[in-house]
Design goal:
With about 260 residues, the chain is an alpha+beta fold. The chain has ten helices and eight strands. The chain has two domains: about 70 residues, Arc Repressor Mutant, subunit A (Orthogonal Bundle), CATH 1.10.10; about 170 residues, 2-Layer Sandwich (Beta-Lactamase), CATH 3.30.450.
Length: about 260
């Protein structure tokens, strides 16, 4: 959060960082004044003033019952604005829906955003018991979870190492994550094409993710699934991989033909 500018751009950068922290998923850390100020590296007094402005405008909200800050309704409303970039995501959200339908598991579309991955779409399977470790709009660091690891694996070596070094202190919030375990998961994803998370981000949850080059030369989207670990075996993992590969290939083929409907 160190920024030499003393004009309004500094305040905007700080407010944006605080909003991203409110939306961030990091273990079980509560989104209160103390944890937010520590995460963005600002004094509590400064963080409190910015939070007050964000809540006054509706970009953030304070839940008096939980004593935590949340993303405000104005942020949600602004996110509904339609643009060409948003419309460009439609084939991929439909792809996620098809994966969830065929695999019968909770499926996510994750987008790389700096050092983080943000969930921009979620589709649930038909089972009564559902696994939802991340909600739409929430953010997590690259390397935390299958989709975020798939995105990390798509970066050049030097960039990936810079990311790991920058976010390594945050791994303490997760029981089974470390810089070395993230590197190992990243290398396996590069070898196999799929990232796996076996309880590292959330205990008892298995995650599987694959990066997608949707709008850039490096994977900028990832499609991932999450299931209870006790429901996983090698045959099911192989079937999920085939479904994800099939639907990604169908979506890419339709986009190359200029057709929104995969064959």
């Amino acid at each position: 959060m160190k920024d030499g500018n003393q004009d309004g751009t500094q305040a905007i950068r700080r407010a944006a960082a605080i909003l991203k922290q409110i939306a961030h998923v990091s273990g079980d850390a509560p989104k209160n004044l103390r944890t937010i100020s520590e995460a963005v590296g600002l004094p509590r007094s400064t963080t409190h003033r910015i939070l007050k402005s964000l809540t006054d405008t509706g970009l953030a909200a304070y839940n008096a019952d939980t004593r935590r800050y949340e993303v405000g309704m104005l942020s949600y409303e602004l996110g509904l604005a339609v643009s060409d970039r948003v419309l460009g995501l439609a084939p991929w959200t439909a792809c996620v829906d098809r994966v969830a339908e065929r695999a019968n598991v909770t499926t996510y579309l994750m987008r790389r955003s700096g050092f983080e991955a943000v969930c921009i779409h979620k589709a649930e399977g038909r089972t009564v018991i559902r696994v939802i470790p991340v909600e739409v709009g929430q953010r997590r660091y690259l390397g935390v979870g299958a989709g975020a690891t798939a995105l990390l694996a798509g970066l050049p070596d030097a960039t990936a190492e810079r990311v790991i070094a920058a976010i390594a202190p945050e791994f303490d919030a997760f029981e089974s994550l470390s810089a070395d375990s993230v590197r190992d998961a990243m290398e396996r994803a590069r070898r196999t094409g799929f990232a796996e998370s076996r309880g590292q981000a959330y205990s008892s949850i298995y995650g599987l993710g694959r990066g997608v080059k949707a709008f850039s030369a490096e994977p900028d989207l990832a499609i991932s699934i999450a299931v209870h670990a006790q429901d996983v075996d090698d045959a099911r993992i192989a079937a999920w991989k085939r479904i994800i590969d099939d639907e990604i290939a169908a979506t890419q083929g339709a986009r190359h033909r200029g057709d929104d409907t995969p064959e």
